[in-house]
Amino acid sequence: MPKFLVPLCSAALLSLMPVAGRAAPDAPPATATPSTSPAPSAPPAPASASSTLSTSAAPSSASPRLTLSAAIDRALTAHPRLRAAAFELEAAEGAVQQAALPPNPTLGLEQEDTRRETRTVTVLLSQPLEIGGQRAARTALARRGRDLSQAELDALRAELRADVVQAFFAALVAQERVVAADESVRIAGGGADATARRVSAGKLAPNDETRARVAEATARIERRQAQADQLAARHALAAAVGMDQAAIGALDGAAASLPTLPGEAEVARRLADAPALRRARLEVERAQAAYELERARRIPDVTVTLGAKRAQEIGRNQAVIGLSMPLPLFDRNQGAQREALKRRQAAEQLAEAESLRLRAEVLSAADELAARTDEVDALQRTVLPGAREAYTAATRGFELGKFGFLDVLDAQRTWLQARMQWLDALARAHRANADLERRLGAPVQQP
Fold first, then answer.
1. pTM for the whole thing?
2. How far from each other are the two terminal CA atoms of the chain, in whole angstroms?
3. pLDDT of 215-260, one tens digit each?
4. Which residue, 229, 234, 214, 253, is CA-closest to 180?
5. d(CA 228, CA 234)
6. Measured between alpha carbons, how far is 32 from 401 in angstroms, rounded to an integer?
7. In 10 A of CB 222, how many CB atoms?
8. Contact at 8 Å (CB) between 252 and 100?
9. 135, 179, 391, 404: which has the fewest Cβ within 10 Å?
């Protein structure tokens, strides 16, 4: 807080000065001071936060502008991960088709003796009959697997959508960081030039110019880092959308547009149908279907055999009818039944644990989003205007010879840090919103 006292005191002193001696808030620095020598130029005044965010560091006007909805549509239609999940769903459809097929019959040929006069030839057709409901249970298990693949696809859609939203706003915030860094270089460069002129006129010590040049060099380093962060953010956006970075073009959006906080009723409704909970419930259903299949397999299959036998010695054909089934004396599939039962019970416990974990994470993410939104609002309403006003007052006091350049540097640093803190808060708010959407899934429109 002490670093705010000098600029704020200077603002209070300037408010007591005659109107003719004051400059307009947005007017350029005055050209004359009480001294007889020409006054050096003051550091340039900062732009407001809203004007900063209205400027976009877009690559080229010829490139098509990418909106958030277009990025989401592109990811949900052509992303490689989504196409791979769609193929997995089609594979599960094939498994359902295969599970519904009955077992194939067996054609057999037997011959007794090799002499033409005494040999016997038998042709047999055997068909296994699943009398315990194995095919229905097998088909139900395959359908539960297909439903789980569909849930995986829906969860991936929600995850990709959240990834695109987070990457899009991260790229927007990185874009605004470059704009803020450019202005920081401009402000620091103007202040260094003004200090150099005062040092040449003998009004300031040479070490003041050194400090000003150091501040300018620091601002240039921060701008270079902001440009590197912007490029990395655009690469992350390209990976989330599933397209080449060069094809993204300019971004059409506003980083300052905060997401809407969902109400408790909406959170509870969407939590009940969250992708992770749907997968957990389907895992329980699949485990139950696997248990039913193992129970059906305890009943052995019956094999019916029909055929014909040609006996050369008697010179006529004879019908062959057979019926066979294994005797379940030792193996009644009891071990597989127990295994499937315990796996179903484990799936039920995991579903309950997943429900508790997801509820805690959703509530935590909702609280985080609310806190970050309040932080952005407080910075935008109080901190940014106060820091900008303090910097403007210190600049005018330096122009009139009332303050030293160290006071200007301190106020400038406070203003720039406040702007970067605001952008950091915006990035955290959008990241918290993406985390919440990733856990709850895409919102469903109510009729």
1. 0.71
2. 53
3. 889 889 989 999 999 999 999 999 998 888 777 878 888 888 887 8
4. 229
5. 10
6. 11
7. 18
8. no
9. 135
